[in-house]
# Entry
Amino acid sequence: MKKLYYMIVLVSLSVFLTGGCPTPTPKVAEEKVAEEIVAEKKAAEVRVAEQKVAEKKAAEVKVAEQKAAEELNAEEEQNAAVIALEQKQALEKEKNEIAVEQDADKSVESPKPVTIISAPEEETDIAINEMEMIYFDYDKSAITPAVAKMIQNNFEWILENRDVQVQLEGHCDERGTNEYNLALGERRAKAVFDHLVSLGANPSQFTMVSFGEERPAVSGSNEVAWAKNRRVDFTRL
# Structure
């Protein structure tokens, strides 16, 4: 019995001396450290990858913003160039119109002063009552559709009276210089003459003269009077 008790004590003591809980060996500790190093390395790699992704996105955003700014600047420059071109074309058009008007004024030979500037007290020409006066807009000699209709009506009378010698008298309102109005009156008479000829009238049946502002149909310095004085009369010689 004592012997059995002694053996039990020896076994217990042996277990106690061996530690009951086994102490980690150096190899296990090294493996744990290695695992921690690997885990830290992976975490560092993840952080580096995330930083690269963030930097790439930031760079893409910056490039997109620069591209949008460049496109906006290009569009603004293009719009500015279009506006500048339109302004230049408008200026050139205005210059050309002025040049054409000046050339027209130079090309019109002013009638003789005795005939035009100093109108006789007793007019030798007789108005043709059957024919309408042709009225024009301010500072214009163009044949508008309304003017063309009036000329057409007069043309029908002319066809029925081919033996009548008709004088086309150009007139202006009082605005403008005397020289300019003489030229403008002649352009109006010439415009009516050209339109009649285009309709089939005989050119030899007509003569033209400009009285400028010297023979107003209506007295007054207002638009009503001026509108009546911007005209071409048909008179019988």
Observations:
- The longest strand covers residues 206-212.
- The first helix runs from residue 2 to 18.
- Residues 178 and 212 are 7 Å apart (CA to CA).
